[in-house]
Amino acid sequence: MSKGWLWVLAVLIMISAVVYQRTTGPTYPFRGTFDAAGQSHKYRLVRSQETSGEARVALPDPGGSSDEMKFEAKLNHKRFKTDDPFTIVSFVKETKEDGAEWAAYLPIQPAAGKMEYFVTLTVGEKSTRIPAEGQDNIVLRYKDPVPDAILWPHIFMMFFSVLIGMRAGLAAIFGADDMRKLAFIALTGMTLGGMILGPIVQKYAFGEYWTGFPFGGDLTDNKMLIMWVSWLIAAAAIGGREKKNEKVSRAVVLAAALVMTGVYLIPHSMRGSELDYSQVDEGVDPSEAIGTGD
Predict the structure, then answer these.
(1) Which terminal CB of the chain, N or C, has fewer other CB atoms within 10 Å?
(2) What is the pTM of this model?
C-alpha cells in the first residue's frame, strides 16, 4: 500500500478518535430531546463548567403561548456524594439575539467540586424527568480556567501524536520505510503534549500537576503514562538505525500503536479529580480536599 493511502487511513483513525473523545466521557453534555406540540426539541445539558461563573443549564424554548403549550421547568440540584437535600430552582425564559431559551443556574463550586442535578419538565399536561426515572442524575464538575496558550497546544499535540502514532503502526504493518522516524515523532509529541503540557493543564484546572500513579488513581493521567511508556519502550527497542531484520522493530511499534488505540477507546476524564465535600464540611481547605472519583 502506498504511503499516501497510509496517511489517509491514519487521518481517518485520528478523526474517529477525536469524534469518540468529544462524544463520550463524564464531562461532555448530556443530550436528548423532548416533544412539544408535535415537534421534537434537542437539548444539551452541561456537565463541565469553569469556576469563573455559575453553570447555565438551558433548554430550548418550544414557543407558543396557549395552555396547551404551557412550559415549566425546574432544576433540582445538590452537591455530589452528599446527603444534602435537593434545592429546586425554576427555569426562567431568556431572550438572546439567536432566539429564546429557558435557563437555570447551578451554584459555583471550588475546583473539582461536583453538582448532581436533574430537571423536571412540564409541557402542557405532560411531565418529563431528565434524565428519566431510574437513570443516574447528571453530574457537573467545576474546574479552574486553563489559559488557551496552554490548553490548545496540549489538545493539538495529543491528536497530532495519535495521527503520527497510527501512521507509524500502519507503517509497521505494511513495511513502510518511514516507520522509525514516525515512531520517534509520536514519542516526542506525546512527551510535549501529554507529559509536559498535560500536567500544566491539570495544575491550572485542579491545582495538582499529577494525580495518577503512584500518587492517585486519575485514569486520564494513568492512560497517558501507559501510552507514553509504550512508545518509550518501542523507541528504545527500534533504535535510531534500521536493522537487518525489522520484524522485532515492527512488532514493538505495532504494539505501541495498539496500546494507543486502546487508550483512546477509554472515555476521557474517567476517575478524574473530585472534591471530597465531607472534608470540606470538616473545615479542610477545598484545595487540600481533592482526590480522584468515579
Answers:
(1) C
(2) 0.86
